[in-house]
Amino acid sequence: MWSPGTSSLCTLGWKPSLALMAILGFLMMAELTSSSPAHPALNLENMSSAELEELANQLAAQELEASSHQSTQHQPDLAGSSLFSASAGSLGTSSSSHALNTAHTVISECVTISMDEGVFHYKSRGTGDQVCGLYLVADPDKTIVISLHYLDVDCHRRGLISIVDGWELNGEVFPSVEDHEKSFASRFHEMCGLEMTGSEQTFVSSQNAALIQYRIPVSGQGFSIRVQHVHNPRPCNILVQDTEGAYTLENYGRHVNCTLTTLFDAKVRILYMSTGQHVSPTQCGKMGLEDYVQIGGSSGLDSSKMQVVDEFCGHSPMPNLRRTTIFCGMTTVRLVSSGKYHNKVTVEVRKADFDDIPSANYVCGV
């Protein structure tokens, strides 16, 4: 049965290189559809990695065949649920046209970054105290639903798995503590023990990014999860891995900060803005306004540590001619809201290249 973890994996010194984020651009979405029910828990104990991969392929073929005989599919009902909640009944009964992805993936690397839906399996090779992670990212207007099918992690051997609402890297998190409605501690759901049957544990992220951190010292132990991407009607925090385009941040009248963070050097232009009082968009700091837009850059995930390059406020119904160009590895647009106004900003995000360096507004480390 479930046993709570005693320490957060983010405190164990896990520091994968920031260069790992570059592989996000090479990941492709897998779109196999199925209306069959979720597979029963898989027993990984006596299976080699090769056997597990073969089984995964067989399961995928079986579910794909079953999809031709059924036409109704259910997806998690997010209405009324907490932003990142554990609930045996979260896989609801509401009808939907969203097709459940049946692709099976065997996790073979310590750090894996995926934009895919489907079922992920991991079996430990006996890596001692090594802490690994499965970084998940979806489209900007999606949240990530994680259903835990199977868990075999020895609590007494310092085994632990943590499902994180957001990303954690080098001790920094996205969204930052200041930009997330939930407390920092409540965003880490830790567990260990043995769970092979019964109702699934289901977790729903607040934004389009989530993380599975795990330390499984005992060879042969592991876990199996299903990942789904579902529509988010009110996205606030957005992680952009490799996609240029226009993005909108909106507080819907709430006292929350919303951020868009890119994992690349970027050129940002405001297309539309309505924040707070309709004043000059260049008098934010002088007037001590509480509602405004910041554009900045950093080398880490924490937007509260970014170097603010530009700040805008007020009302601007027409696209701004000015572009803010930042070379820091990560670029952030942050909508700060007092809760007194319905704030909204739409920005155009483009990748910055070598030719943009001479005209850059800010370059980290220079």
From TrEMBL:
<keyword id="KW-0964">Secreted</keyword>
<dbReference type="InterPro" id="IPR056178">
    <property type="entry name" value="CRF-BP_C"/>
</dbReference>
<keyword id="KW-0325">Glycoprotein</keyword>
<feature type="domain" description="Corticotropin-releasing factor binding protein C-terminal">
    <location>
        <begin position="239"/>
        <end position="356"/>
    </location>
</feature>
<protein>
    <recommendedName>
        <fullName>Corticotropin-releasing factor-binding protein</fullName>
    </recommendedName>
</protein>
<keyword id="KW-0732">Signal</keyword>
<dbReference type="GO" id="GO:0051424">
    <property type="term" value="F:corticotropin-releasing hormone binding"/>
</dbReference>
<dbReference type="Pfam" id="PF23541">
    <property type="entry name" value="CRF-BP_C"/>
</dbReference>
<feature type="signal peptide">
    <location>
        <begin position="1"/>
        <end position="35"/>
    </location>
</feature>
<feature type="coiled-coil region">
    <location>
        <begin position="45"/>
        <end position="72"/>
    </location>
</feature>
<dbReference type="Pfam" id="PF05428">
    <property type="entry name" value="CRF-BP_N"/>
</dbReference>
<dbReference type="GO" id="GO:0051460">
    <property type="term" value="P:negative regulation of corticotropin secretion"/>
</dbReference>
<dbReference type="InterPro" id="IPR056177">
    <property type="entry name" value="CRF-BP_N"/>
</dbReference>
<feature type="domain" description="Corticotropin-releasing factor binding protein N-terminal">
    <location>
        <begin position="109"/>
        <end position="229"/>
    </location>
</feature>
<dbReference type="InterPro" id="IPR008435">
    <property type="entry name" value="CRF-bd"/>
</dbReference>
<dbReference type="GO" id="GO:0009755">
    <property type="term" value="P:hormone-mediated signaling pathway"/>
</dbReference>
<keyword id="KW-0175">Coiled coil</keyword>
<keyword id="KW-1015">Disulfide bond</keyword>
<dbReference type="GO" id="GO:0005615">
    <property type="term" value="C:extracellular space"/>
</dbReference>
